From TrEMBL:
It comes from Halobacillus andaensis. Cell division inhibitor that blocks the formation of polar Z ring septums. Rapidly oscillates between the poles of the cell to destabilize FtsZ filaments that have formed before they mature into polar Z rings. Prevents FtsZ polymerization. This is Probable septum site-determining protein MinC. The lineage of its organism: Bacteria, Bacillati, Bacillota, Bacilli, Bacillales. It comes from the Bacteria. Belongs to the MinC family. GO terms for biological process: cell morphogenesis; division septum assembly; regulation of cell septum assembly.
Amino acid sequence: MSANSQMVTIKGTRDGLTLQLNDQCSYDSILQELEEKLSVNGIDDNQPMIRVTIQLGNRFLTNEQQETLRKIVREKQKLVVDQIESNVITKDEALSWKENTEITPMTKTIRSGQVIEVKGDLLLLGDINPGGKAVASGNIFILGHLRGIAHAGSQGNEEAVIAASYMKPNQLRIADQISRAPDQDSDGLYIECGFVDKQNEAIRIAPLQDVLKQKPDLVSFERRMLNG
């Protein structure tokens, strides 16, 4: 590494400060330069709290090392670490990501009292009868009638959706959001999709093609199907 290369680059942003750490030098030298740079100027007590994002690049730090970084920043008045970003993840994190992005295809009817739970997306070729329940950490796609309960994004993913060939559910849930059951006398809906409407902070049902305009990332489902 060139002697003139900066180990710590500090940039001001609209949201606060970004600290870019050179990933080609040692961790100890990073800590030393970080302390020196943050000690150059004092911070006025009247200034508001400044949020800091630390970018590690292609560097992995343990939880203990990350906490040391946070401590150095915290010691500087009015600075607080908002997030630490890295291009590197652990093997366990990679396995968890893979598990939660896989598609589980299933051909069956989920009857009253039955509960099906999967990680990732669920592709159900069949019906969910009243009293039946399907739970997925990702999206739920039903090629059949949804008359029971469907819970997508069960681990907190509000971007998840629920789509069904025919939708007249007892209940829809996405993350922590819950929709009420439709009126008993109302008709069901064909090829509809339930999703969290961020504007109204509630679950809304709309034609699938309308949802795709708002959630273009759903095309990744198609790519995973083709690559699966």
